[in-house]
Design brief:
Number of domains: 2
Shape: elongated
Number of strands: 16
Order of helices and strands: EEEHEHEHEHEEHEHHEEHEHEHEEEH
Largest sheet: 7 strands, mixed
Distance between the termini: 65 Å
Structural class: alpha/beta
Low-confidence stretches: 225-230
Mean pLDDT: 88
Strand content: 15-25%
CATH superfamily of the largest domain: Spore Coat Polysaccharide Biosynthesis Protein SpsA, Chain A
CATH architecture of the largest domain: Alpha-Beta Complex
CATH class of the largest domain: Alpha Beta
CATH topology of the largest domain: Spore Coat Polysaccharide Biosynthesis Protein SpsA, Chain A
């Protein structure tokens, strides 16, 4: 039997969780976890890993891995488009005698080893259909349907006290792995037939992301979200840093720009600092001639407060003959932490306030962007920057402020 294709379908505009296929999950967009698992499995030639999507952005992200990317026709990108329709269209350009492995993007906890084991089972079963499944975790004999008034319809076993050790085990597809020969799938139109063999996966590896709750749970399972509480602004540390800065020009930012230093500027990096924190310590800046403030993403949680303290700082600098410069927030990528549109609102509001008070604003986002959001190649999690981004920011910001 010839080597298999790997098919990764990824439709944009998901309903349960917006942009879920490209939300940062750990250190990369969700879709790349599936692409990387396919590559790591070693089962496929790189050009035979095929990502099908109606989104140019999804395809651009996957192009960075060197796999084949195919733009899906608009008529196959609607809620009414079935998986069969999408696959049938895709298979027209492929060798129908070859096997294929379908991997869904929403199963990021599936591993390369899972894919390898499932394919070995497929070969062992003489190339008959294999579908990954999980234990439902409940004996279906103690479940029931309800009518429109929430009255029990099937009450046969509900009160029979079935012991756990006597319970039957039921399984269902977990959405992670589907394997078949193309010609056979086109003939049957389904992965679930009497000859289908189940590849059993554990609960954790089976988690399928449909909504925000699923995403958070999967993140906990994969240890990408820590349970520690967010540290608060450290007032004493901030005062100490300002008092020990000899320069007449001062750059203030939160920890998002923690690796940035500017020529001829003192640098204060303080976690979770907002304009409110800065204004409440404004008397510390009596010896400072120039303030360059990087607007923190934390300001999106209190726009009215942000406007209020922006005005207060602008008035203070005007009254005391100090030059004030504002560094606009750099947008985020697709992430569950910050909403892209709220960050855009913050950027627009900052520009408006700068124009109102005749304050210079600095925008260094252009070379870090893909369309109107942070390009994933410059981030470790969709918000924080990687070293490649810091080098660009450092170089451009020093050129602008010199």
């Amino acid at each position: 039997m010839k080597k298999p294709y790997c098919i990764i379908p990824a439709r944009a505009n998901s309903k349960g969780l917006k942009n879920k296929n490209v939300l940062f999950f750990g250190n990369k967009p969700l879709i790349l976890h599936t692409v990387d698992q396919a590559i790591e499995s070693g089962l496929f030639d790189l050009e035979d890993i095929i990502v099908s999507s109606d989104s140019e952005e999804y395809l651009r992200i996957c192009d960075t891995r060197g796999v084949t990317t195919l733009k899906r026709p608009d008529e196959l990108a609607t809620d009414k488009s079935s998986s069969y329709d999408v696959l049938e269209h895709l298979f027209k350009s492929l060798d129908n005698s070859r096997p294929f492995v379908l991997l869904q993007v929403t199963s990021p906890l599936r591993t390369a080893k899972n894919i390898q084991e499932a394919y070995q089972l497929f070969k062992k079963c003489d190339y008959q259909t294999v579908v990954s499944m999980k234990d439902v975790g409940v004996d279906l004999r103690i479940t029931t349907r309800l009518d429109e008034n929430n009255k029990i319809i099937d009450a046969k076993m509900l009160d029979k006290g079935i012991r756990r050790q006597d319970s039957d085990i039921y399984y269902r597809p977990n959405g992670a792995i589907y394997i078949d020969v193309i010609s056979n799938y086109l003939k049957t139109g389904s992965f679930l037939t009497p000859i289908t063999t189940a590849y059993i996966m554990g609960e954790n590896n089976s988690l399928d992301i449909d909504d925000r709750d699923d995403f958070v749970l999967a993140s906990i399972y994969s240890d990408t979200i820590t349970k520690q509480s967010q540290p608060k602004f450290n007032q004493d540390q901030f005062v100490s840093m300002v008092m020990n800065t000899p320069e007449k020009q001062l750059f203030i930012s939160d920890s998002r720009l923690k690796k940035i230093t500017l020529n001829d500027y003192g640098t204060i990096i303080a976690k979770h600092i907002t304009l409110k924190n800065i204004f409440n310590n404004i008397d510390l800046f009596n010896k400072i001639d120039t303030l360059l403030i990087a607007v923190s993403l934390s300001e999106i949680y209190h726009f009215n407060q942000f406007k209020n303290y922006f005005t207060k700082i602008a008035n203070y600098c005007s009254q005391h003959n100090k030059k004030l410069k504002i560094l606009l927030p750099i947008p985020v990528s697709f992430t569950i932490t910050f909403d892209i549109n709220e960050v855009k609102q913050l950027i627009q509001l900052t520009k408006q306030l700068c124009e109102k008070h005749a304050i210079q604003y600095i925008d260094i986002s252009k070379n870090l962007m893909a369309h109107d959001y942070l390009d994933f190649i410059y981030s470790i999690d969709g918000v924080q920057f990687n070293d490649k981004a810091f080098k660009k920011i450092q170089k451009e910001l020093n050129q602008v402020v010199k």
